[in-house]
């Protein structure tokens, strides 16, 4: 979506003048970033004192140039209008690979070279070649490990969460959380079935999916999402939209989840009752919903809580952690979110922190509100997870009064 000239003018006036140099630079970031990603490793590995034989230098440089040209073209064909899955796989894999290579080219290119210089190891060419082989070795190991981490069934992360307003009758309520499954170009139907089998072993009272089911329409990714229909919960299975649903006909995903037996909590709530006590389970559309242009889609917390007793504890599903500011203002007891992937490929988590108040795990916001942010069950785009493991989460809700621990 592009701004109109009137909007740009108003924005400029609101900020007291024309855009700053930094703001103007940010406009060119999509063009600058790919060049840096490919040029920096090329320079570190081939052109900083190694003096490789000319055929090696020319061949290596040509490969980096091909990557610089091919990656955005493949991603455009894969994620643009054509939606070609094979192109998306190539583009996403190149993106993940070059990100890891860039990261370690920078780190080892500076730190290892400095350490070797201080230690007096070899001459300049020897040190440059040691750095090159170290960067390639570390990158190869991390990509192999990261691919295995991305494709495996996530480990279950278990934790107790005490909610001061939770009645004793609800003590021990088991809430299973999956999120950001991102079914996509790589067919993960078997993986999906194994994830659902793992969820079923948790014997949860409530199973939640906090959005970003897939990249692609419900019709296109139906086979991968179908195992979600096998998930079991003693009380309810509930779902809210994520931002990626709004790239892929969100209403189709809402309808499919309803067809699979999940309750889409689109700015509404249900009541979970046990032992004479009640928990409000509410959900909101993703914060990007309103800008999607889909009628009736928006994040509306007041609507989600409409009719609920304000004295009852509230469990809220919201895809993005940054919704917690609104949740805390409404006195929500616990918000469950995903979206961050824990950064997915280190050190991308530093960029995530610029946009979100939490990266992963349990955090407190305001006087009452707890936020649990999952690192996600699947992966987006590049099929790698480096220092950001996926998870299936089991939260056991605890009451200060204690109660039935079964």
CATH fold name of the largest domain: Purple Acid Phosphatase, chain A, domain 2
Strand content: 15-25%
Going across the biggest sheet, name each strand in turn. Answer: 1-12-2-3-4-5
- Overall CATH class of the largest domain: Alpha Beta
CATH architecture of the largest domain: 4-Layer Sandwich
Helix-strand sequence: HHHHHHEEHEHEHEEEHEHEHEEE
Poorly predicted ranges (pLDDT <50, ≥5 residues)? 1-16
**End-to-end Cα distance:** 51 Å
Q: Tell me the structural class.
A: alpha/beta
Q: How is the quaternary structure best described?
A: single chain
Query: What is the total number of structural domains?
Result: 2
Strand count, sense and barrel status of the largest sheet are:
6 strands, mixed
What is the average per-residue confidence, as pLDDT, rounded to a whole number? 91
Global geometry: elongated
Number of helices: 12
Please bin the fraction of helical residues. Answer: 40-55%
CATH superfamily of the largest domain: Metallo-dependent phosphatases
Protein name: Metallophosphoesterase
Transmembrane segments: 28-46, 52-75, 87-110, 130-148
Keywords: Hydrolase, Membrane, Metal-binding, Transmembrane, Transmembrane helix
Domain Calcineurin-like phosphoesterase: 174-342
């Amino acid at each position: 979506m592009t701004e109109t000239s009137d909007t740009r003018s108003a924005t400029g006036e609101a900020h007291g003048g024309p855009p700053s140099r930094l703001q103007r630079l940010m406009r060119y970031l999509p063009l600058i970033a790919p060049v840096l990603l490919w040029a920096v490793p090329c320079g570190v590995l081939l052109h900083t004192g190694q003096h490789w034989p000319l055929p090696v230098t020319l061949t290596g440089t040509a490969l980096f140039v091909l990557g610089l040209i091919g990656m955005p073209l493949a991603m455009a064909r894969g994620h643009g209008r054509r939606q070609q899955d094979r192109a998306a796989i190539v583009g996403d894999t190149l993106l993940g690979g070059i990100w890891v290579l860039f990261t370690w080219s920078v780190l080892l290119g500076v730190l290892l070279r400095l350490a070797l210089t201080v230690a007096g190891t070899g001459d300049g060419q020897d040190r440059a070649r040691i750095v090159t082989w170290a960067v390639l070795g570390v990158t190869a190991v991390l990509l192999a490990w990261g691919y295995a981490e991305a494709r495996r069934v996530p480990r279950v992360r278990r934790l107790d969460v005490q909610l001061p307003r939770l009645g004793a009758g609800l003590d021990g309520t088991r809430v299973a959380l999956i999120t950001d499954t991102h079914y996509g170009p790589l067919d993960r139907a078997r993986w999906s079935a194994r994830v659902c089998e793992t969820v079923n072993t948790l014997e949860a009272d409530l199973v939640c999916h906090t959005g970003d089911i897939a990249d692609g329409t419900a019709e296109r990714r139906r086979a991968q999402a179908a195992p979600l229909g096998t998930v079991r919960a003693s009380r309810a299975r509930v779902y809210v939209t994520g931002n990626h649903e709004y790239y892929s006909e969100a209403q189709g995903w809402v309808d499919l989840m309803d067809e699979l037996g999940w309750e889409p909590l689109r700015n509404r709530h249900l009541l979970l009752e046990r032992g004479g006590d009640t928990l409000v389970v509410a959900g909101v559309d993703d914060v990007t919903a309103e800008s999607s242009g889909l009628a009736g889609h928006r994040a509306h917390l007041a609507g989600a809580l409409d009719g609920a007793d304000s004295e009852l504890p509230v469990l809220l599903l919201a895809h993005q952690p940054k919704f917690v500011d609104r949740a805390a203002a409404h006195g929500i007891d616990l918000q469950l979110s995903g979206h961050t992937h824990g950064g997915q490929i280190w050190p991308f988590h530093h960029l995530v922190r610029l946009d979100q108040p939490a990266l992963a795990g349990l955090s407190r916001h305001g006087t009452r509100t707890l936020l649990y942010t999952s690192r996600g069950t699947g992966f987006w785009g590049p099929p790698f997870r480096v220092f950001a493991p996926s998870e299936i989460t089991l939260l056991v809700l605890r009451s200060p009064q204690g109660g039935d621990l079964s």
